Records
---
Amino acid sequence: MLSRVAERVYWLARYLERVENTARLINVHTGLLMDLPRDVEIDWFTLVTIFDAEMFYHANFEQINENNVMQFLLAEPNNPISLLNSLSAVRENARTSLDILPEETWEQVNELYLLVKNEMAAISNRRRRQQLLLTIMERCQTVWGILVNHMSRNHAYHFMQTAKHLERADMTSRILEMTSLLMAENRSESMRAAEGILWTHLLRALSAQQMYTQTYSSSVNADGVLTFLIRDEAFPRSLFFSLKAIGRYLWPLPQSATTLEHHQKIMSEMFNENLKELPAEMIYTRMDELQAKLAELSSQISQKWFHPDRSVA
Amino acid sequence: MMQLWRDYDPGEFYDELMHDQHQPRHFSYKLLDYLKSMRKEAFEQRIVDSELEILERGITFTVYSDAGNIDRAWPFDIIPRIIPKGEWDCTEKGLVQRIRALNMFINDIYNDGNIIRDGLIPEEVVLQSKGYRPQCKGMQPAHGIWAHICGSDLVRDDNGTMYVLEDNLRVPSGVAYMLENRKTTKRVLPELFKLLHISPVNDYPSHLSAMLASLAPDDITHPKMVLLTPGIYNSAYFEHAALAQQAGLILLEGADLTVGNDGYVYMKTIHGLERVDVIYRRIDDDFIDPLVFREDSTLGIPGIMQSWREGKVAIANAPGCGVADDKVIYAYVPAMIRYYLNEEPLLPNVPTWMCRDPHQLQHVLDNLADLVVKPANESGGYGMLVGPHSSEEQIEAFRQLLIDDPNNYIAQPTLKLSVSPTSCGDHIAPRHVDLRPFILSGKNNYVTPGGLTRVALVKGSLVVNSSQGGGSKDTWIVDDSHFGGLN
């Protein structure tokens, strides 16, 4: 497999996962804000902070309001992680990997891109926007369905799955950062009153509510949610599951030993300590660290398989 | 839908589907009956469906223009063009005969030069061809074949005779669009395939792959085969990707390849370097090897010409084969067929005046307003004069060009190109068409049944190139042996 092609399908999968996660997060967040009293510490801008995109936001918008935040996260050309930019990256990578992806992949991706691009004019309309986000999630699932059901388990597939789980772990860790708001000692009364809704929201942002309820037939609470989203071994969006999957898909790649060692180190650092006993702000720090480690793993993958000629050693 | 056809009149032109204003040809009445039985709205819906289909499948080509490069949806007319199988069988034989002679010619001029020595073609005609590459002298590619993939342009005049207009031997494009056109017709007009037996075209990629495999060096049984593209900004990138996908070739760019110390060609993979045996290249000779041709080329692979010369890698089409893709050389093809094959040409050339000959030049200058004048080495319809459609100033400008540089031009009569019914907004009208079949030559020959029909969408226009506003049609070879009746 060509290094360049490996790089393209890797990023195709990462962006595809990012598009779906972004759509789900915004969709769920909109639902949450409808339920919350106005004076809680969570608002539209919380979304921007989840993506660590405050700087880009302020460079493009003065006011913080629903319209601007949505414009920024969905359509803004100057926001490198806006949904439309991510989707466009999926499309460009699919267009340049036509020869190794199942035929329908490109068609689906192209169709989705054209649809989203056309609908972007209507995103200030909440109803239309929510509808669009649902469609985006469905279509992303369709693309994954094609890949999983039509693609040989070759290296292209391994790279795509590695990328998907890496991106997913990144997103889960970002959503877990919100726990620092939810568990802050000095959180407001309204926040305390809305706790049940908020923890449920966290689950829903990761499509985890139903599986959580099946696993713990108890009410939704901080302990349960943290344990489930971080350590659950069966739920495919928990940190543990995603990180383990990264290792599984890295393993068959050629000369993967050093990368696997690095991966193993991330795993043990992450799961050897009991996160739920940490104070809230420490969870935030751990998640931040994890994102940095994942970024490093990604650049190691790039150096190893995509640009071996650029590596210094 | 009858009202769409009410004013249909091919006039003085040969119509591919109509015998005259009212009477369909014997092989097209089923198609036309069906189309005419549709309600206007239903027909229009099918057009919308086909446009959507093409947009969603991302079938595009790029137009280089002043306004930057634009990705345009592939222009497709849903009314197919039909050629009866009996006629096509003869055309196919003629195409194979022609490409055999052309390959023998290329092999000859880079080796023994018999045809020059025997005085059939002047040496300076060969040397003036922009595609002539002295670096290829002495090469003997597998099976003696240089032009492995050829796209010949065929046109019909007003009495129905099919002529070869040109032989595209360098990097002919269009075959993926032929495949896409058929897929689109199958999706938007599936009923038609019940009415007629239409020769399938979708096995082209497997013939391509088999032909390429027959070129592999060192008798390798499972050669590594790649398609070399200039990249996503090339106008035919869609085709490169589609062909690679369908023929099982690895799609790559020059930067993905390197020539090893052992002289073999390698690609850069996640496993390290892997040897490549056959390269289907879609970049011009000029860019293929900066050590041999253009030094400033970043698309090519330094050293690849040496690998090719040493027989360590096969390249299709072979470097240098463009020597025969020249409008002056074209004029000699019938002579080549007689010389190499000792056969009479089955497909005629369009009569051609060579401006390098002073007598012929005089004739051309005297009749400029009636002729088509073409530069020897351009493709895509650029830089030509269509006398009857040009202003006095344009004609005078060309007169000067001809006098200054006669060797670079040929002239042909303005053919009354055939027409075919084409959907033009609120009515169906006759529009001029040509046809580009694709011929594969390796160990064996293969000709696509039909090919890519291009159509000039503007009334009266003869320019069918998609880069200049042309469209395309699905082309059907239909078995008419049981239809009976008169043509």
---
Amino acid sequence: MRYLPLSDLDRAEMLGVIGAGSIDDLFVDVPAAARKAELFDLPGHAGEMAVERALARLAGMNRPAGAGPFFCGAGAYRHHVPATVDHLIQRSEFLTSYTPYQPEIAQGTLQVLFEFQTQVAALTGLEVANASMYDGSTATAEAVMMAKRVTRRNRAVLSGGLHPHYGAVTQTIAHAEGMQIVRQAAAIDAEAAVIAAIDAQTACVVVQSPNVFGVVTDLAPIAEAAHAAGALMVVVTTEAVSYGLLKSPGEMGADIAVAEGQSIGNALNYGGPYVGLFAAREKHVRQMPGRLCGETVDADGRRGFVLTLSTREQHIRREKATSNICTNSGLCALAFSIHMSLLGEAGLRKLAALNHSRARELAGALAKVAGVEVLTPRFFNEIAVRLPGDAAGLVEALLADGIVAGVPFSRLDPGAGLDDVLLLAATETTTSEDIAALTAALSRRIG
Amino acid sequence: MRFTKDHEWVELAGDVATVGITAYAAEQLGDVVFVEVPEVGKAVKAGDAFAVVESVKAASDVYAPISGEVVAANGELADAPDTVNAQPEGAGWFAKLKITDLAQFEALMDRDAYEAFLGTL
Amino acid sequence: MAMANVGRPTQPDLEISDSAAQGAIAGGRGLLQDELLLFEVGGADRTGVDLEDAALDASDLAGLTRTAPIGLPGLSEPEAVRHYVRLSQKNHAIDLALYPLGSCTMKHNPRLNEKAARMAGFADIHPLQPVSTVQGALQLMDQLAHWLKTLTGMPAVALSPKAGAHGELCGLLAIRAAHEAKGDAARRRVLTPTSAHGTNPATAAFVGYEVTEIAQTADGRVDLADLAAKLGPDVAAIMVTNPNTCGLFERDIIEIARLTHEAGAYFYCDGANFNAIVGRVRPGDLGVDAMHINLHKTFSTPHGGGGPGAGPVVLSQALAPFAPAPWIVHSASGLELKEEDRGFGRMCAFHGQMGMFVRAYAYMLSHGADGLRQAAEDAVLNANYIKARLSDVMTAAFPDGPCMHEALFDDRWLEGTGVTTLDFAKAMIDEGFHPMTMYFPLVVHGAMLIEPTETESRRELDRFCEVIRVLAAAAKGGEAKRFKAAPQMAPLRRLDETLAARKPRLTWRESGATVS
């Protein structure tokens, strides 16, 4: 077995050193009834070539986004990731290390986390950011529970523009903790509707911009209303590239900003692993979930970094921890940080402009297709359109034309009564030819 | 000054009790990095967790040694938590409580009894 | 013929090497380069990507766009490569040397798995594209589920949890839902041993349960009498790690499960240490109702400096109906993905850590039923070998009987030396090893938890044991000063954690550019 260095001779000699007659002697504490003498009913070991072949066969049954026109978004986006990113994250020292419990021999990871936190704080317009969460959806649930700790209130209002899966995750997790979660019905351009639902028990409102329908909203009036009632505003973003063009959550008054960071540095990966971004105001730092890396000095006075404020965390505070999170998304955060460094301010702005311009081209072309109505008034790189019939059926039909046309809203929220709504995203990877192919096929299918 | 088995101290002036953690507790904790003191106006019962003290690797609840209403909290500790290490039984006090039940105070250990208690640990 | 002494010298000039030892001019040391922060080496005018220009017409977004600078430095590609390669060299890694971090299972990460996860058919597929276009992905998830169910002897698995702690949450939510479905809402307590991972009580509190600790016996196991006394109609579940965090198999595990079920509670098993028994013992045969499996531990997906992990949860028949969305069903047209809310809800936006599923499945196929069993046996053998070779110089916390995949020592052997567990760990750094897990589990004083894993050769184990023996002799030989000063060879010496916590500096700011 290529991954196991011990030879049979090693094993025999080592058992001798231990003073055990056989390997079974080391498993004596297992109740006899539970010892399995025979091998399980699974295939035996296989060589690298055979395994690669088996996996390539499965991979070959899937249709990659890059295989042709592709317009899916709704929380995961296809972007070009520079080759350097994937090379660097496969450095042994990043890939095969763990949580930096011994800071003297983990300064590489720690400095990266410190840089990542600084980048996320800058992008979100807030003062502090943590070292990552699992993904945007769990970050949202954590934000809601943090709002509960900060305000000592028990109710959260989720907008109708929040990604339905994010709403479901927040409902599942925050409800379990005893919170009352009010989910407003799906609505295309109604983030501000949360204002009417704020009451004296409201810990936070959760709004998304661009929202799941792609709509960009000025959130400042919502922040004002929330703050006037003693509540926090949590701002969710699923497309991190939008930070390059749009006002930051912090600028609009967010107390907590969370985001899905997949767009920067990370592949689609069929939904994971991704990286949750989490930023907040400095005055609330002790209520934040997750790991935090901070600057300090070593015994010789040289600058260095350590995990800090750990007393918030499960390994010390146990049942009083701010969250139960332990392992987070370290390597995905590294990928995010490297890609962001390669982009820099100029590159990110250019990338965002490019995405917006592609989406405008897409929206313009779709508006010209008879029977298609563009529903999103202000967008970044994603729009919702109304089709003359069932969106899911049309997406399925367009597969025959080699086109993956987008995400039917009914896939996310089957009960919303928006079966004719299709969500489409355009990124820098979307070409004019892709758009032309889509509109031509749509015209044929609808006509 | 009186003491509890949870290593809090109480000093009484009139009906106002000043509360903090003992020198022994401060030493056991190591470098104190953060203290959360109670809000003024809060009513606490003896035995309630009413403050938190943290070192780098530990967080401990501080229990009210005596019932009363919080009339002052030591805001200085927010910026200078190390005061708890430097002067635990002085400038490092946590809160002042207005008390009503003097018997609760009388029931606590005096210094000799506390020292003897420490000897058993 | 006379030879002229010219050309390249082949001997070191002693005078020069003496002065070089005084310290390098720009902070570098041989192959180890000093590296400033991104914000100090980068610039707003630099970029490592060439993007086409887009005519930005944001008139439709009037008043919604950024005006002020973000404050993000950029790097050209060569600068970026240098920055991150230099940083990487300040990390210890499995690929460099033994990384015996107990409970974390730092085993070799096969590179085939990395290659497979990057195949376009896995990496470049979107979680919401039509299921007819991702049949291979669903097949892989279905196969992974089959292996996990077979290896654990459990009938169902929820794949979506993103890490161990997320899996614990999933398991407890299923347990809570099961109690609620029976109209049994009075169960408010979760029992967990004092030796439990911190995530156990944190998760229980997260779900709104009170935590009660179960005592431990002198031989490091759950105290059955104490458990029986604390079980009652208000207990929702017990959370027990098996093998436990002391590296021991819970001998009475079947009785623990029986008592738990008799009291109407469920048995949540923390599966962090499943790697010790995979292929030999099925948790389903022990009476477990729910258990998460850390794919990044048992099935070797890389730890990545702190994640991502993956924490699928296997469920018993009683809990299977309460599994969260999504799940896969077989139909005439192939595999379908059911995404509607069911059970207690949803754990994350999509379907879990597909990238980790691919790696774990590649690991399973490579090992097969025989290799997985051999891996568990070798992991246990290696740990017992270390325990046997070090027990005369250190004090094993539980000397009697074998350990499982990790060997636990306490600090009694350091008594009177002036050297603490922390000091000893730091001295290991100077010898090129990553320290073991320190001060965990909490039930053992000055705990040192050593998990070598099965992917260490005997040569590396012997090298490790020799180093520890020499260090132990030095500690006992009155060399406390050396230990207090360690590490001396690492990129940095001990860091001031008090300063970091008292005056948190969590982001780079211009004024804080240099601390010296």
